[in-house]
Amino acid sequence: MGASKGKLYTKVIKEITVAARLGGGNPDGNARLRAAIAAAREANMPSDTVSRAVKKGTGELEGESYEEVTYEGYGPGGVAVMVECLTDNRNRTASDVRILFNKGGGNLGTEGAVGWMFHKKGVITVKPGPTEDQVMEKAIEAGAEDVVPQGADGFEVRTAPVDLHTVATHLESAGLPLGEQKWSFFPQTTVKLDGDNARKMLKLMDTLEDNDDVQNVHANFEIDEALMESLQ
């Protein structure tokens, strides 16, 4: 297993364990667990690995106890950054995240510093195949808020956070090919970056996402597409 796949497995296993602990081991009645298991399938995770993670969450097997922590801070150029973590040692994670912000040209803020700049949404990926009209029709029927085309990657259906599970179930039963299901944060305003700040911000995102305790990173920056390609 490559390093990146290993890291992905670690993050998905943690999410399954926490979802099962908080909402029980039955995905039919636990939207968060259902989304985590969908992510495990997308990553081709073996079913026995998924089953063990669920049992660790419900207490049938011994395992680490993770807690959810969200850190808020600023990146280069005043970019707002939210870092979602699952950790078994809050002090270690806080220290690691603070160091990464400082090294990356930003700084860690207090709770609530930037969270108000983001809206939380449910996100369901629809794989390529159906037309935009087909996805739009099924999404509206299912109670979704929006459909955003993703080019060759298909479509993104966005929902109110509590509707993720219901909408995904409806789309699946309507025959649409679904991919990832998750909750995400969308910025209400964005900061345009160029030059050195753009390069530093992308590096900060990479180093944060590379940390084992970090599950998701959200930020409100915009970078010109041509510049983005030249920096990657």
What does this structure look like?
With 232 residues, the chain is α+β, with helices and mostly antiparallel strands. It starts with a helix and ends with a helix. The longest helix has 21 residues, at 3-23. The strands form three sheets. Strands 3-1-2-9 form a four-stranded antiparallel sheet. Strand 1 (67-74) and strand 2 (80-87) form a beta hairpin. The chain has helices at 3-23, 31-42, 47-58, 90-103, 132-142, 164-173, 195-210, 225-231; strands spanning 67-74, 80-87, 107-108, 118-126, 146-149, 155-159, 178-187, 191-193, 214-219, 221-223. The protein folds into three domains: 5-58, Arc Repressor Mutant, subunit A (Orthogonal Bundle); 67-116 and 188-230, Alpha-Beta Plaits; 117-187, Alpha-Beta Plaits (2-Layer Sandwich). It has eight helices and ten strands.
Low-confidence stretches: none
The strands making up the biggest β-sheet line up spatially as 3-1-2-9
CATH homologous superfamily of the largest domain - what is it? YebC, transcriptional regulation domain
Q: Tell me the distance between the termini.
A: 24 Å
CATH-defined architecture of the largest domain: 2-Layer Sandwich
Helix content: 40-55%
Shape: globular
% residues in beta strands:
25-35%
* Main sheet characteristics: 4 strands, antiparallel
Rg, nearest Å: 18 Å
The tally of structural domains comes to: 3
CATH class of the largest domain: Alpha Beta
Question: What structural class results from the helix and strand content?
Answer: alpha+beta
Q: Return the CATH topology of the largest domain.
A: Alpha-Beta Plaits
Multimeric organization:
single chain
Task: Work out the helix count.
Answer: 8
Element-by-element helix/strand order: HHHEEHEEHEEHEEHEEH
